[in-house]
Write a structure and sequence with these properties.
The protein is an alpha/beta fold. A 5-stranded mixed β-sheet has the order 3-2-1-4-5, with helices on both faces. Helix 1 crosses helix 2 and helix 2 packs across helix 4. It is elongated and about 115 Å long.
C-alpha cells in the first residue's frame, strides 16, 4: 500500500512563515490557500480532509504538496503561463504583418485593400503554410504591432529637370540674403459663404453658422507679398489672377527696397508670373525671380503664412460680402505685422509648414528625414 502524501518535515523558518501567512492573511488568495494546505498536511491531515478544508480538488492538494517537497516555499507563488500557449511563432506573426501591409493586388487578390475578414481568409488559405488565428486575435495582433487602418495619401513627384538648381538658389536667397528676399503668391479663391471653424463655447452648445447661402458675389484672390528679412506681409484682393496684378505686386516689392540693390523674389510657375513684360522689367530693375520647382510649392516661404491667414480670417466666419471680407483680412495683416512673433502666429506657421511638406516627409532641400541629423 502506498504511503499517504504529506509534506516533509518543516524547518523552523518555514513553519513560522506559513503560520504568519495563514494568521495575517495575504493579498494573494493563492498564497493563502496553499499555505493552509501545507500547514494542514504538516499537522497530520490527509489529502481528502485538506481538500474539503480549502474547497479544492484532491489532485490540486497533492500537486502543491509535491511541489513544496521539491522547491520549498517558492511553491506559494506558482509561475503560470498566464493563459493558452501561443499558436503563432514570431516568424508567423511577422508574416501576418507583412501580408497586412502588402497591397492585395500584388498577392493576386482582386481588391485594393484588406478587410479583417479578407485578410483572415487569405492567411488561412496560405499555400503550404496556413495561419490559424481568429478574427479578434488578428485584430489584436495588428494593433500590438502598430498596424492601423489609415487613409492613403497622395504625393506628386516633381518632373522639373532643374529641381536641385532651383532649390539651391532659393536656399541661398533665404539663408545668405534674407534682408533682400521676398516671396509672392496668390491665395484663394475666396468666396462669400459661411465657413466652419472652431472656438470656445459652452459644452454642448457650439457656435453655429447658417448652412444655406447663395453664391452671388463671385470670387477674389489675395495677392500676397512677404518680406523674409522684416517678417512683414501685405497684399491686395483682386477679382482674378493676371500678369498685370503680378506686375503691380512686384513693383510694390521693389519699392520696399528703394536703394536699387538687387533683390530676390520667390514665386511659383504660374504663367501670369512669366509674362515677357514682367521678365524684362525684372531684369531692368535688378529683381531676380526665383521660381519654385514644379509641384514644390512648399519651397515658397509665404505658404507657411497663408495657414494663419486662413485660420484667423476665413475659418469660423460669415462675411456678408467681399468688402467686409477684405477689411477683415487687412485688419488681420495689420495685427500680424505688429505681433509677428506672437505664439499663435508661430504655432500656426509651424502647422502649415508641416502640412505643405508632409506629402513626401522631407525637409528643406528635398532631404529625407532619415538623412537629416
Amino acid at each position: 500500500m502506498a504511503e499517504p502524501v504529506r509534506v516533509r518535515r518543516l524547518t523552523d523558518q518555514e513553519g513560522q512563515k506559513l503560520q504568519q501567512i495563514v494568521r495575517r492573511g495575504s493579498t494573494s488568495s493563492v498564497r493563502y490557500r496553499r499555505a493552509m494546505m501545507l500547514l494542514a498536511s504538516a499537522g497530520g491531515n490527509t489529502v481528502p480532509v485538506i481538500a474539503r478544508l480549502v474547497a479544492a480538488d484532491e489532485d490540486t492538494v497533492r500537486d502543491v504538496i509535491h511541489r513544496f517537497n521539491e522547491i520549498g516555499l517558492a511553491c506559494l507563488d506558482p509561475q503560470w503561463a498566464g493563459g493558452r500557449p501561443r499558436l503563432l511563432s514570431d516568424n508567423e506573426e511577422d508574416l501576418v504583418v507583412q501580408t497586412a501591409t502588402t497591397r492585395p493586388a500584388k498577392l493576386g487578390q482582386p481588391f485594393t485593400r484588406w478587410s479583417i475578414r479578407k485578410l483572415l481568409a487569405y492567411l488561412q488559405s496560405f499555400p503550404g503554410r496556413a495561419i490559424r488565428i481568429g478574427r479578434e486575435a488578428l485584430r489584436a495582433l495588428l494593433a500590438r504591432r502598430g498596424i492601423t487602418f489609415q487613409r492613403t495619401k497622395t504625393w506628386k513627384e516633381s518632373p522639373d529637370p532643374d529641381f536641385d538648381a532651383k532649390l539651391d538658389r532659393i536656399e541661398y536667397a533665404l539663408t545668405q540674403r534674407p534682408e533682400r528676399t521676398f516671396a509672392f503668391d496668390e491665395f484663394g479663391p475666396l468666396g462669400i459663404r459661411p465657413t466652419p471653424g472652431s472656438g470656445w463655447a459652452e459644452r454642448g452648445r457650439p457656435d453655429r453658422l447658417p448652412a444655406t447661402y447663395r453664391r452671388t458675389h463671385g470670387i477674389t484672390y489675395f495677392h500676397g507679398c512677404y518680406s523674409v528679412g522684416d517678417d512683414t506681409m501685405w497684399g491686395v484682393n483682386r477679382r482674378r489672377k493676371g500678369s498685370d496684378h503680378t506686375w503691380a505686386a512686384l513693383r510694390s516689392i521693389r519699392a520696399a527696397r528703394p536703394d536699387g540693390a538687387p533683390i530676390y523674389v520667390i514665386l511659383d510657375n504660374l504663367s501670369a508670373h512669366k509674362n515677357w513684360r514682367i521678365l524684362a522689367w525684372a531684369k531692368k530693375n535688378k529683381v531676380e525671380l526665383c521660381f519654385t520647382p514644379t509641384y514644390a510649392s512648399w519651397a515658397n516661404p509665404i505658404e507657411a503664412h497663408f495657414g494663419p491667414l486662413r485660420q484667423f480670417t476665413l475659418a469660423n466666419s460669415d462675411h456678408p460680402n467681399h468688402t467686409v471680407q477684405t477689411r477683415a483680412l487687412h485688419a488681420y495683416l495689420r495685427w500680424r505685422n505688429a505681433n509677428a512673433r506672437h505664439p499663435d502666429i508661430l504655432s500656426a506657421q509651424r502647422r502649415e509648414r508641416a502640412r505643405v511638406r508632409s506629402e513626401k516627409g522631407i525637409r528643406w532641400g528635398g532631404r529625407p528625414l532619415s538623412d537629416v541629423a
